[in-house]
Amino acid sequence: MKTKMRVLTVDDSRTILAMLHHTLTNAGFEVLQAEDGQKGLDVLASEPVDVVITDINMPVMDGITFIRNVRSSGRFNSLPILILTTETSQDKRDQGRAAGGTGWIVKPFDPDKLIAVIRRVVH
Amino acid sequence: MGEFDAFQATFFEECAELLGELEEQFAAIADGDRSPGRLNAVFRAVHSIKGGAGAFGFVRLIGFAHAYETALDQVRSGTIVLGPASIKLCIRANDVLADLVSASREGRNPAPGLGDAEEMEFAALLAGETRAGEAEPVVADDEAPIEEFDIDFVPVMVDLAARPEAVRRTTGDDLDAFEDAPFRLSRNRYLIRFTPHGELYARANDPLILLRELASLGETEVRAIIGEIPPLSDFEPFGVYASWEIGLVSATASPEQIAEIFEFVEGICDLSIEALGEEDVSPSAPPAEAAPSFADLAAALIGSAAPAAPEIAAPEVEAPPMLSLVVAEPEADRRGAVQSIRVDLDKIDRVVNMVGELVITQSMLTQQMDETLRSRYQELVRGLEVLAQTTRGLQDSVMAIRAQPVKSVFSRMPRLVRDLCARTGKQIRLDMVGEATEIDKTVIEQIADPLTHMIRNAADHGIESIERRRAAGKPEEGTIRLSAEQAGGNILITVEDDGAGIDRERVLAVARSRGVVGPDQVLSDEQIDNLIFAPGFSTAETVSDISGRGVGMDVVRANIDKIGGSVDVRSRPGQGTRMTLRLPLTLAVLDVMLVRLGGLPYVVPLSVILETIQCARAEFGVGPSGARMLRVRGDYVQVVDLGAVFGVPSALPLEDRFILLCEAEAGLRVALVVDDIVGQQQVVIKSLEQNFERVEGIAGGTILGDGSVGLIVDVEGVRGLSVRRLAA
Q1: Are residues B260 and B385 in the same domain?
Q2: Residue B719 located in a structural domain
Q3: How far apart, in whole angstroms, are the C-alpha atoms of residue A9 and residue A23?
Q4: Are residues B558 and B623 in the same domain?
Q5: What does the pLDDT look like over A2-15, one tens digit per residue?
Q6: Domain containing B371: what range?
Q7: Same domain assignment for residues B573 and B598
Q8: What positions belong to coiled-coil segments (chain A) (predicted)?
Q9: What pLDDT is stored for residue B696 in this prediction?
């Protein structure tokens, strides 16, 4: 039996988390949530995850630092990480990729596009 | 509620928190704290509002938040230094933001021109910075372009044109994609050469997925180029050796669509996409060699040749095994690394109710234990003691779940005071203390209106005009201090101003003219001050649009009474006024004194009882109307025989009975005569209105330890009843 894909969503905005949760669960994903990078790391430490979607601007630990920490831990070299960015912030996107981000999702996101983007980084 | 509405509700809830956060951060910034943490927090708050607004297409809100955010970004990067003027601008911008959020929530268009001035000032700030620093233009790729006009201010041109498109996209209307795709009857061939760099793998991109995505566009033939793979002895675990050539035949795919698949790996691979023309005329297409399977790769690795498999194996990957899932839903607490969850209030209330029943059952069990049972079943007794402790612990924990910091209400006040300043022309500073004090959520909801009214009252009637303050030798800026603290089983919320104090002569004159106070009645200063809470009382000579909306401070008292709290005012002429709200920690459980009337149990809230007196030791007198009075340290207090009021007359002589000296209204005392005082306990309040009907003099009911129903005495109501009985 094929088990569901698990997505870890990291964002300090409850609105965005709720929308991601809705879209992703409808598409058959299982969704984990964290509200900043530090909590994202905590979840990764204890839960198997197939793909991560993370915001950049967050309190406690921002998305760039989060990605850098995930990659430098050595445990998650093949874990796809998607960065949530706005259309205009090309520099954030580049910073995120330089830190080890796999791809990006442009906010505000269209549900179908969101799923399509995830399908482009996970099996 | 539809999903979309639910998201919007979440968004507006979050906006309220973020706006509160902005208030709080700017209060500290205005006090001189410019730490990067604060500047980042305000940037984030505005950024989050903009992000959420983007999802719902609140165009004006997005535009303004963007302009504000752009300025804040320069502030946190240090390009713009916040001075008093720019802090004021930001505080005004917070108000605009709040208004735009309200407009969006209510589905109306914001007032025309709202925020335009602030936006222009932000633009001027940015432009000024550029000139002064002679630095590179502040406008980076991600910021709104600034267009120069031949005027003093340079407006920020927010990229509004792009928004409708963004909005449309959220509707899931994807027809555009089809329109863009060229309509073909024939099929096109492409040759794609793809060589990943090490970086591609380091970022968890996976060539297999890209190949699979390509396959979704049409028919593919994939050839892996594995000649670079070294013998195992030279093999580097993270070395990059493989590349691919893909032949794609597709009726629909455009080169752009193919490129899009490789969007994420741009710059971290070598990629060429070559259009080979239409299917039938493409002799230059590469020979569709059988692609090697994993077995080939493995064979290549160990340096031995293996026969090529006829087809590439479809990438089929098993998902990792699952563990049981614990989803942690984050709570809005941005402060520390507190793990939290969001729970429906209904669910908590159910637990509160059940714990209430548990408390009653536990005390019922304890009461069943008579001496014989006690000596016989010591283990049972011990068990019951533990049960009692655990139950109490459980009760406290559940109450703590419902508790919330008063900050959620306090944070609305700075805005209120600013508005009041603008409207009255006064200068008022608001100091807030003890915002972290926690109080039951229901209580918090109930105090927002009274508190607003008290602050309005303090600003409108308390603090004097600038001229009058100057004349009185006071600083022009008046101060209102809003504080919260826990005191025993109560929360005290105090609104204190340094204004003129209550004009007692005028208050008394108005009270007499309205018949609130009899012509010969002599009142203490304290009693006069508290007249402002009397029903229908309002001394404002001109009805301002601030506190004079036809409702006076009596509404404050009524609201606070409803939740079992009390309100009191103390004033010093020329020095100021202090209003204190005394609130119960929780509404669900009440500390009471259990008494008996004609053999029946009644309970009186402990919070109103000042002292208990044996009738045999009390000193009675007779008042002017012939009513019996109790003499307490020189004062006479009205005596009410509770049994007589409730129609359960006492069989006991007066000297065997007891008096509860209670505070009915602040400053007004009443002596309740009861048959017996049983003791103190906690009870769970049951509403009489919901289960029966409203009864004057009774605030509610409760189930006592022995299962009998005890009625909760409404002391103020009882006093009113007995006054009318006397008059009749």
Answers
A1: no
A2: yes
A3: 12
A4: no
A5: 578 899 999 988 88
A6: 362-404
A7: no
A8: none
A9: 84
Write out residues 503-562 of B within 8 Å (CB-CB) of A: none
Whether A1 is covered by a domain: the verdict is: no
Closest CA to B518 of B621, B622, B620, B624: B624
Structural domain tally of chain B? 5
CATH number of the domain to which B253 belongs: 3.30.70
Highest mean pLDDT pick, A76-90, B268-282, B421-435: B421-435
Distance CA B230, CA B208 (A): 21
Print burial letters for B192-212: b (CB count within 10 Å at least 16), e (below 16).
Answer: bbbbbeebbbbbbbbbebbbb
User: Is the peptide bond prior to A59 cis by the omega test (within 30 degrees of 0)?
Assistant: no
CA-nearest residue of chain A to B43?
Answer: A57
Instruction: Kindly provide the ipTM of the predicted complex, given to two decimals.
Output: 0.82
In a domain, A19, yes or no: yes
Q: CA of B133, closest CA in chain A: separation in Å? A: 23
Q: Which domain holds residue A71?
A: 7-121
User: For the residues of B627-665, what is the DSSP string, one character each?
Assistant: -EEEEETTEEEEEEEHHHHHT----S-GGGSEEEEEEEE
Q: Any idea what the CATH number is for the domain that residue A51 is in? A: 3.40.50.2300
To probe the interface with B, which of A3, A19, A78 has the most B CB atoms within 10 Å? A19
Size of interface A-B (CB pairs under 8 A): 159
Does B544 lie in the same domain as B484? yes
Task: From chain A, pick out residues whose CB is under 8 angstroms from the CB of B141.
Answer: 88, 90-91
Q: Do B489 and B550 lie in a common domain?
A: yes
Name the residue facing B322 among A3, A38, A86 (closest C-beta): A3
* Residue B186 pLDDT grade (very low, low, confident, very high; cuts 50, 70, 90): low
Q: Which B residues in the span 338-367 are in contact with A, Cβ-Cβ below 8 Å? A: 339
In this prediction the pTM is: 0.49
Q: Backbone phi, then psi, for A18, in 5-degree steps?
A: -65, -40
pLDDT at B44 over 70: yes
Q: State the amino acid at position B82 in one-letter form.
A: L
Q: How many domains does chain A have?
A: 1
The answer to the question of residue B332 being in a domain is no
